[in-house]
Input
Amino acid sequence: MKIGYTRDIDRRLNHLNSSECIPFAFRFYATCEVPSSLSDLKIHSIIDKLNPNLRSAEKFNGKQRVREFYAMSPEDAYSILEAVAEIHNCGDKLKKAAPTEEERSAEQIAQEIDTESTERAEKFSFSKCQIPVGSAIEYCADPNTVATVADDKNVKYNGETMSLTALAKLLSGKKYAIAGPRYFKYKGEWLNDIRCRLGV
Output
């Protein structure tokens, strides 16, 4: 989430989106027209004092690089804008932007990728989930599509041994990295749910 002040929002969005290094385009969630120019630094300073862990910061070439991006939900960022609007007595100038269908779809994909990257980081283990080698697991979109557990990390499908994630990508046709356990069931229960239930 980026929070900042600009005199020309379209120009600012074009500038942010000019890089090919970002996976999804920025869009504005909400805006508030204020009667005088605001210093981004003041708003950023308040956020940093309330919670310094929200701001994106990293070491690059031995130097600390602090940026205007925050790990917060759009709703939390909107509440900050509401406070700014109240301070400036311009609540009528506070507006949420209605996303287009394309933006809504991109946001959903981004959330999926974020969730799946978190789940991918937690390595899945059949033995920890009490699923023995040789067990059958079903693909979510078609219960007749079945793979067999080959070892602790891999499955067999059509005579080929592969990771759960590789098979999920093959069957789903998704191009981005995904978390395999979200796509399969064992004895009618999602692999992810089994992992959560057993706390592994």
Residues 136-198 form one domain. The longest strand covers residues 63-70. The chain has two domains: 9-98, 136-198. Residues 2 and 69 are 4 Å apart (CA to CA).
